[in-house]
Protein: Fructose import ATP-binding protein FrcA
Amino acid sequence: MSEPNRTTTSTPKDTATSGADAESVTPILQARGLVKRYGHVTAIDGADFDLMPGEVLAVIGDNGAGKSSLIKALTGALVPDRGEIRLNGEAIRFSGPQQAREHGIETVYQDLAVAASMDIASNMFLGRELRRTGPLGSVLRMLDKKRMREEAAAHMAELKIGLRSLTQTVDTLSGGQRQAVAVARAVAWARSVVVMDEPTAALGVKESGQVLDLIRQVRDRGLPVILISHNMPHVFEIADRIHVHRMGKREALIKPSDYSMAEVVAIMTGALTVGSDGGKATVADAEAARAAGLPTT
Ligand SMILES: Nc1ncnc2c1ncn2[C@@H]1O[C@H](COP(=O)(O)OP(=O)(O)OP(=O)(O)O)[C@@H](O)[C@H]1O
Ligand SMILES: [Mg+2]
Structure:
């Protein structure tokens, strides 16, 4: 491990593409030149994206930078006007979120989309309910609640999520527990990618820690994670690489060990720029850099 680089003038050893060792590794999810316009507003302005196998990739950027739009394009919630998306090297065009899910991409949305009045096991199988075998299931459409509870319990235990009862309705859970249910559901069904939009935004310190632990577990199971977050300490704690989004496109793709938090914020706001190799950061806006407390020479 090289010493973290904490100045604006030195050059990090590794380039941005080294997240999973070499350029020969096929990205799990990749985009080139994505564009999405809403009338006069350009939400995505020629954005590139790369997610490598087994990594936690943080996506950060100012409000309105276009993070959500980019993620929507990658998860089928938005169809880009231009550009290309590849999943495991194959060009793909999602017509909707359901199609992205069928390709193994699961998204935990900021508003969670858990059904509050249903119990935990039912939430785990929401939209994918198991039916009873034989005519009870095929004709009468009866649910196999017992099997869903058993499978949900096994899955929760595997993720070390401690919940007293899976028959508890979700509206009786704490914010962190609800978040855990949403993450567990995504992990249960994801085969390629788990996407999380601000998973710790509404959580306390302890609950945030639990969600970060879950993200680590997901990565340890070999699934790459895209984490959209405004929380710089969380990003630095958990991300293998950081995609900095600015004005509709990728501004930089860097490793947190190569930059300080102040520098990353400065890249986000345009005070610093980084070469396309993710290397040397140079001062683009001296006044803004000084305001961020960074050296400008
Ligand atoms: N459906 C839409 N119609 C019109 N403009 C849109 C639409 N969706 C996004 N935009 C615009 O595109 C730009 C990028 O928005 P987006 O929501 O992707 O940003 P963001 O980085 O996710 O911001 P935040 O951090 O506030 O969530 C903004 O200027 C926004 O107003
Ligand atoms: Mg957003």
